[in-house]
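Repro:
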Amino acid sequence: MGACVNHAIAIQPHGELQKERTLNHQEFNSMTTSRYKKTPQTKPTPHQARLLAAPWMAPSVPGAVTGPWPQFIVPLAISEKPLPIRIEWDPEFFPGFPPIVDGDRVQLLLNDAPAGAPYTLTSTDETNGYLFVDLPLFDNDGNDRDNNPQTLSFVLHAATSGEDIASRPATIYIDRTPPGQERLGEVVLPDVTGQVVTPGQLVGDNLRALVPSYFGRWQGDTITPYIQGLSGNADLDASAIQLPTSDNGGVITILYPRAALEAAGDGPALLGYRIKDLAGNESVYAEGHPVVLVLRDAPGDSDLLPPIVPLFDDNDIIDEDDARQLDVEIPLYLHINGSDRIELYWNATAVGTFPITDPTADPIVTIRVPYSVIQASDPGNDAPFTVDVNYKVLRSGYAVATSPATEVVVDIRLPGGTDPTPGTPDHGNLGLPVARSTLSTPVDNVITATQFGQDANIHIPWPASTPPDPTNVKFKAGDVIVADWGGETVSYTVTSSDEQFATISALTLTGQQMVDVGTGNIPLFYTVTRNFPADPPLPAYSNTSTSPTQIVVVQSNIDVPGGGNELPDKGRFTEVNANLALNWANTRQGAPYQVLLNYLNVVPGDTIHFFMEGQTLQGVVLPGTQYDASYIIQQADINRGSYDFRVPATLFTTALWPTNVGAHVVHTYWTATNAIGTGNSGEQVTLIDLRTGLAPATPPAAAPFLSMPRFESDAADARNAEKLEQFAASLWSQPPKA
């Protein structure tokens, strides 16, 4: 048959079959369609109406999917072989030709086209009350239309009358296409940030996932989640969902139960799904969405307590001093693991990640917040500011829980402005103090021995910033400056005049304060404190800036070698004869001169200086006999207790010490010098006679050591002269010795 055949609609007035006219199939379909539209195009005759209303006038598919779905969805399992189509029998179906004769037949139509061979009616069909006609289906028959409907109908041909009567059409779905065809997209996890799945991200003990749109979506599709984890793969059939008949293409949500997630094992996993449609077509497994599962005995957000900030809790403010030593304590929490790490946050800034050394301690960890982090959080509004402090628990490198925040109030406003060098103890905008004696011609940061014990001025520079910012970096009226001179302090309060002219009046250190501290390298620095009055709920508090340290060199006579007194040892020639004199024999290798290092304040590094000069007994200087030498003391010398200079033998000749006039004397002394000053020894006088076996009968009068530096004391000179005369007289009263 062709796609458009003529069919007769039989009418039966007075019980007799008459042929009124012939309708083609398109007209009949139009009429049947108009019945559903309630807008008939042609008013049917009574017999036509009876035929249109008859339930047996449309074919049915006994093997189709049952349920509230569109009728006659052909299951995949039977969609590629002849499909039995049932046609109901009714006496009115054959009103014009009882009994059945040869040539009475039925032809199936698929989309108005003949499908298969015509079926010849038999009396058995009439006896059974129905008949089956096969719809020829087979692989690659071109009938796969996915979830799009096709029209199934049939035509009855009455051989006696020659009539062709068309049935009402039925809808049939032949679907051999899997949902999504060759690929399904990854799920979207709306409650997971990143890849880590933790208890805090579950909703009602389920992980929600959104299924993206896919090709061939239709009502009745069954979507089954799957998990591929370290412990194996699992299709979560119990969590499968089926799209309703009312599916309108909205968001599809599937659930992964916590029990199934935990069964997959903590660690990396893939979450996906597969789809099976009503016809039985099964999709490929969707692309797995990678996640890291951290669920087994893991803490959730509700298991964590807020962090503790003790220096805030003590008075409800974190001031400058607190900020330099601020600790945050992390309380013990449920489901802790010794391998957990704590990541601390100061507002949105990660302070760092810290291990847990003792999972039974409480707090489990104490974390020092760097001052630079606190300083960076200051919005610069010249006022106290708030900060949220919280932490995350990391397990296997992933955040599994976030604590509630502790809000703290911070004020680190400083005299001198924001510290540009927060990593150092001193404020980078504060300059070094300068110390000057109040006596004439002072040298910055040096107090000489003559200035020691006198008042000194301490000068505080006005602060400057790098880069310069005079509007923000300054002292304010009311700031308290305290200068510290080796522990002695001098305070000063900044005035409005100081602030106006950007200068600080000099602070005075009294001479007595200087003496109390003593001498040496004295550290000098200053602090500047700004006091903030109570402003409930904030208490009264203060912030202090500290300057760098200046070293002031303070000298005093008590610090020079010998402590301001004559050095206790004059020294001596150690190779002399029995009369303690130098002669020709004991000077042939030169003459060693020993000084004792037993003076006050002796230290390694002191310089000792030896001086010698020859004179006649009458005090006339002998030209060429002058000699001096210096030496820097070592610790070994101090341990030994002495040092020996050696006067060269070239200094002991008869040309320099004439023998025709008899004996002479050697005048010697030495000095010791340190960074503070110099100490002098007394003069030593030694007889020298380079004659061989001769000695004067009477000792000459001794003369002072005129060509050498003299002691300041005239009394000392007189004592030395008297001792020399006594010594010389004693020598001449004894026989000369070689």
